[in-house]
Amino acid sequence: MTFLNDTSNFSATPAAIRRAFGYFARRVGRLINNWIAALIAHREYQANLALLRSLSERDLRDMGLDRSQIGDGLAEAAKLRSRWQQSRRSDFT
User: Fold this and answer.
1) How far apart are alpha carbons 36 and 34 in whole angstroms?
2) pLDDT tens digits, residue range 72-87?
3) Burial of 40 (0-12, 13-18, 19+ CB in 10 A)
4) Given this model, what pLDDT does residue 23 score?
5) How confident is residue 31, by pLDDT bands cut at 50, 70 and 90?
6) CA angle 39, 45, 49 (to 5 degrees)
7) Residues near 52 by beta carbon (within 8 Å), at least 6 away in sequence
8) Per-residue pLDDT reduced to its tens digit, 47-76
């Protein structure tokens, strides 16, 4: 009489491992997504800054900007856009 053949097919450990791995994979996915989004936003900021710096004084004046306001204006616009995106993200969750 051996008990080696009397094994239960039910085990909670694999389900817990799968659940933990799924949670970990989602967190890593979000981390990578946020990192890529930050990289894209930074590149967009650099492109906009280069574009504004290439404009003439008259073009800047037509937009209501002075050359000294270019960096600060883009930073403020980025903050507003970030707040807007955060509010939209919270609306969907």
Assistant:
1) 5
2) 777 787 788 778 878 8
3) exposed
4) 94
5) very high
6) 150
7) 60, 65, 70, 74
8) 988 998 899 999 988 888 788 888 777 778
